[in-house]
Design goal:
mainly alpha; MetI-like fold; two-stranded antiparallel sheet; 13 helices; globular
């Protein structure tokens, strides 16, 4: 009286007995995992190649020297990089762009942080309206912004003398341009804390609104402030269209004009500007106040 056995057995083993049949789909999972790993590496190689190959090509062109007929190759020279310091307009444009970036960050934080905190605490229904207004510059092309704001800059240049003719006035329009990116960075940090409770607690202890924002809210959203600042600096240093149409000599405009005179020096300046912007953003993210507190903390578990 033997019942039927549901387990399927494979062929007999060499040493006796039987081998269990291999489950269906056991190798399929490993093959699919291997395929996904290969796909990830291919995508990573493609992206790195897309980003790095143009940089190496630019470096090769900027360091290209005289053609040697014997070896039929180009010599290598750093003369293009050394010539950067022979253009005083270029140095002035770099300083002006850094000043614009600093003023843009200050103005953006001064405008956004109190507005967003006040909206969350006092008028939550206006949060969508503020978000819409901050994201609106994404839907408006830069050329349209210049056409609309051009008469204002013309009046400023004619009536405010040296102040109106300064490229630092670009801060006004750059603050508008960085609003969409800065708003998202700050909003994500404000959503991570209980802003309303912290504000009410600070106010109940006798602090005013400026003290509440500076001493309570700002220390809790340092990560968002730092991210918003990095995005603002990167956008200001790379902005070209508005500066060119308004006839202000920022670093990108001077690089463009220099390209008509000496292509190798223009490429060398572009590479130097990229390297400088990378170092500047890394320094902001690494050495800004509060950067160390965002590092991963090791929590020791108590002994049982």
């Amino acid at each position: 009286m033997s019942g039927s056995v549901n387990t399927q057995l494979g062929a007999a083993a060499p040493g006796g007995g039987a081998l269990l049949a291999r489950p269906k789909g056991a190798g399929r999972g490993r093959r699919s995992s291997r395929t996904q790993t290969i796909a990830r590496y291919l995508i990573l190689i493609f992206v790195l190649g897309y980003l790095i190959v143009p940089l190496f090509a630019s470096l090769e062109f900027a360091t290209r020297g005289d053609f040697d007929k014997t070896t039929k190759t180009f010599g290598r020279s750093l003369a293009s990089f050394a010539a950067i310091f022979s253009y005083p307009n270029l140095i002035d444009s770099v300083i002006a762009s850094l000043e614009i970036a600093a003023l843009t960050v200050f103005g953006m934080l001064l405008l956004l942080v109190p507005t967003m905190v006040w909206t969350i605490v006092r008028v939550p229904r206006m949060r969508r309206v503020v978000e819409f207004l901050c994201l609106l510059p994404l839907a408006i092309p830069a050329i349209v912004i210049v056409v609309g704001i051009g008469p204002i800059y013309r009046w400023i240049g004619q009536n405010l003398g040296a102040v109106g003719a300064s490229p630092l006035t670009l801060t006004l329009i750059d603050i508008i341009l960085v609003l969409p990116y800065s708003y998202r960075a700050l909003d994500s940090s404000l959503r991570g804390i209980d802003t309303a409770t912290l504000s009410d607690a600070s106010r109940s202890l006798g602090a005013g609104w400026p003290g509440t924002i500076l001493r309570v809210i700002v220390p809790n959203i340092r990560g968002g402030i730092l991210s918003a600042s990095v995005l603002a600096v990167a956008l200001v240093l790379g902005e070209f269209t508005i500066s060119s149409l308004l006839s202000f000599n920022t670093v990108q405009v001077v690089i463009f004009l220099l390209g008509h005179r000496d292509g190798q020096v223009a490429v060398a300046v572009s590479l130097a500007a990229l390297f400088f912007a990378f170092v500047l953003l890394f320094a902001i993210a690494r050495f800004a106040p509060g950067a160390a507190s965002r590092a991963q903390r090791v929590v020791e578990e108590p002994n049982a």
